[in-house]
From TrEMBL:
GO molecular function, one term: odorant binding
Pfam families linked to this entry: 7tm_1 (PF00001)
Annotated ranges, domain G-protein coupled receptors family 1 profile: 63-314
Keywords: Membrane, Transmembrane, Transmembrane helix
Designated name of the protein: G-protein coupled receptors family 1 profile domain-containing protein
Membrane spanning stretches: 46-71, 83-108, 120-141, 162-185, 214-238, 259-291, 297-316
Family annotation (InterPro entries): GPCR1_Superfamily_Member, GPCR_Rhodpsn, GPCR_Rhodpsn_7TM
Subcellular location: Membrane
Superkingdom: Eukaryota
PANTHER family: G_PROTEIN_RECEP_F1_2 DOMAIN-CONTAINING PROTEIN, ODORANT RECEPTOR-RELATED
GO cellular component, one term: membrane
């Protein structure tokens, strides 16, 4: 026998199905709305973080670019050892600023890269990170020789010897990068199933094995400890020489201030090594919105600001660089203002 539903039962069944469809449609619409709001919030977050870091980076890159151009604009800058070393330091810090900003933006946009591409960017950043403290050591030694051995300074600190020291700095830094790459390749071949990364690109994410992590710690400790000892020893030597009757007091005082500046710069460079551990500690105690804001501020003060201090401090302190630097900066600004005024007057 076939069972026939009554009209009342059919009507109730139709109402239940209709209500279920309407409820499902509302839930789907609500989920779509929540998803759209989440995407909008994420887009605003990325836009805010990118703007807060990119605008200062562009300003500082412009200042560093003018400073690098200034150090190549006069023959005296190209033929004096300390200016050649300063150019090498500023060049390394400018490249490091560019790479840091690129890696930060890629991480903010949550771009997942391959190990080879990420390895190229991070190892290039490691190369310039090592060059900075080593260049500060050579600059400190140059000031020590200038104060303690003024008669032999011209024979010891020559353009040729300065060029050789810069080549040795780059070779030492390159050997460190080569060793890191060999450690990475060994782990990639033996353990990893895919070249695609699971997280965003950073120096920490390239520690794919305990050996590479231990090596990075040991090498960083060795470089910065050695640099600190060298700079402090140079400062003590200059301070001791300044007490002698034959020493040039003004030159010794200026050299001591310069060495203190080198020590501060070394500390700022060292502060970048605590960036990742600091963020890991903060991520466990603060909510995501607060963490993103703190991360941006920490990144700006650890990576962006120190990379521009060298240009500003050396450019404003040095009596030979300052007028040339101010000329190029102010001349560019005046030309921009004159151009804008001419365009406004012509349009009117």
């Amino acid at each position: 026998k076939q069972h026939h539903m009554s009209p009342r039962t059919q009507q109730l069944l139709y109402c239940d199905v209709s209500n279920t469809v309407q409820f499902t449609s509302k839930m789907s619409h609500a989920n779509d709305s929540i998803h759209d709001e989440a995407q909008d919030d994420r887009f605003l977050e990325i836009l805010m973080v990118s703007s807060l870091s990119t605008i200062p980076s562009c300003v500082f890159l412009y200042i560093n670019g003018i400073m690098l151009f200034t150090l190549r604009s006069k023959a005296v800058f190209c033929e004096t050892a300390r200016y050649i070393l300063l150019y090498n330091l500023l060049f390394a810090e400018t490249v490091q600023l560019v790479l840091s900003q690129v890696l930060f933006l890629l991480a903010a946009d949550r771009v997942i890269m391959t190990y080879p591409l990420c390895g190229f960017l991070t190892q290039l950043a490691n190369l310039t990170t090592t060059i900075s403290p080593l260049t500060l050591v050579v600059m400190s030694v140059e000031r020590y020789v200038a104060v303690c051995y003024p008669l032999r300074h011209a024979d010891i600190v020559t353009v040729r010897n300065t060029g050789v020291s810069i080549i040795l700095i780059w070779m030492f830094s390159f050997l460190d990068v080569l060793f890191r790459v060999l450690l990475l390749l060994e782990v990639l071949v033996e353990e990893l199933q895919s070249l695609q990364m699971k997280n965003y690109c950073s120096s920490t994410s390239m520690f794919v094995g305990p050996i590479s992590h231990a090596y990075s710690k040991a090498f960083t400790c060795f470089v910065f400890t050695s640099a600190g000892v060298a700079i402090i020893s140079s400062y003590i030597g200059v301070a001791a020489a300044a007490r002698s009757a034959s020493a040039d007091k003004a030159s010794a005082h200026k050299a001591r201030n310069t060495l203190l500046l080198h020590l501060v710069q070394l500390g700022l460079s060292l502060s970048s090594t605590v960036y990742s551990p600091l963020l890991i500690a903060l991520s466990t105690v603060v909510v995501r919105v607060v963490f993103v804001r703190i991360q941006t501020l920490v990144y700006m003060f650890i990576f962006i600001v120190p990379r521009c201090l060298s240009s500003l401090i050396y450019g404003l302190r040095d009596q030979s660089i300052r007028p040339v630097l101010m000329f190029y900066l102010c001349c560019r600004l005046r030309l921009s203002v004159v151009k804008v005024k001419s365009e406004v007057s012509s349009s009117a």
